Amino acid sequence: MKKEKTGSGTLDFAPGCVYRDVKPTDQSLADSLKAGKRSAYKAAMTRYGPLVVSIAASVVSDRRDVEEILQDTFVNLFRSIDRYNPREASLATWVGRIAFNRAVDFVRRQHPEELTDDSEALADMADISDTDPALESDITLLKEAILTLRAPERTLLSLVYFDNMPLSDAAFILKSNPAALSARLYRLRHKLSLIIHEKRKQL
After folding, report:
1. pLDDT tens-digit profile of 6-57?
2. What torsion do the CA atoms of 54, 59, 61, 66 make, to the nearest 10 degrees?
3. Of 48, 3, 13, nearest to 30 (Cα)?
4. Per-residue confidence band for 138, with pLDDT thresholds at 50, 70 and 90
5. Would residue 197 count as lying in a domain?
6. Which residues contact 1 (CB under 8 A, 6 or more apart)?
7. Which of 14-23, 93-102, 107-116, 136-145 has the lowest average pLDDT?
8. If you ran DSSP here, which 8-state letter would residue 125 be given?
9. pLDDT tens, residue by residue, 56-102
């Protein structure tokens, strides 16, 4: 099998990027990380980098902040891998919780205003090119409504609707439970509907 080189070592975490490496299981990867294998560090960043970026971008708006949270997440992962318990969650879900915690901690330290106001973090969540004006207007209103939500609410929507994550995994990341998140999603959909309705009246 031909191996893909990473050049300078910088990894591309663009959405939709396909990696053709033979992937180890979560447990074998965790074991390799615990053993301090350098190849495991690269494998973990390649596999879970897109998830970390997605979570970070749902909390902060600046790409440089996202990159800092990305690095902080993996440093924390490598330092705390001995505490990983596969009976609690998959390694991906565990990394997701670390990413969310690192993102919220970062914002509390650097940009506390972004916990309630984020003008750019979800800018790329919906592609509105080549759509009819009515649909484009609806998508724009939806994006504006999402941006009025608190960071944990935006992260929940991102995990469930954009990353297609099961509620059980999202619940672990957000330190909640599936039933509570299901109810929260119902309330969020109603809240977004009311916000969009009010915005339409202002047009």
Report:
1. 433 444 444 444 434 445 688 888 889 888 888 888 899 999 999 999 888 8
2. -50
3. 48
4. low
5. yes
6. 20, 22
7. 14-23
8. S
9. 888 887 888 889 999 999 999 998 899 888 888 889 999 999 999 89
Q: CA 105 to CA 3: how far, in whole Å?
A: 37
In a domain, 165, yes or no: yes
Residue 96: domain span: 26-202
Domain CATH number, residue 80: 1.10.1740.10
Pick the most confident of 8-12, 106-110, 178-182: 178-182
Task: Tell me how many domains the chain contains.
Answer: 1
The answer to whether 26 touches 92, Cβ cutoff 8 Å, is: yes
137 within domain boundaries: yes
34 domain-assigned: yes
Encode 53-122 in three state secondary structure. HHHHHCCCCCHHHHHHHHHHHHHHHHHHHHHCCCCCCCHHHHHHHHHHHHHHHHHHHHCHHHHCCCCCCC
Smallest CA-to-CA distance from 34 within 81, 99, 87 is with: 81
Give the C-alpha separation, 123 to 52, whole Å: 17
Angle of helix 26-34 versus helix 91-110 axis, rounded to 10? 60
**Mean pLDDT, range 101-107, rounded to an integer:** 86
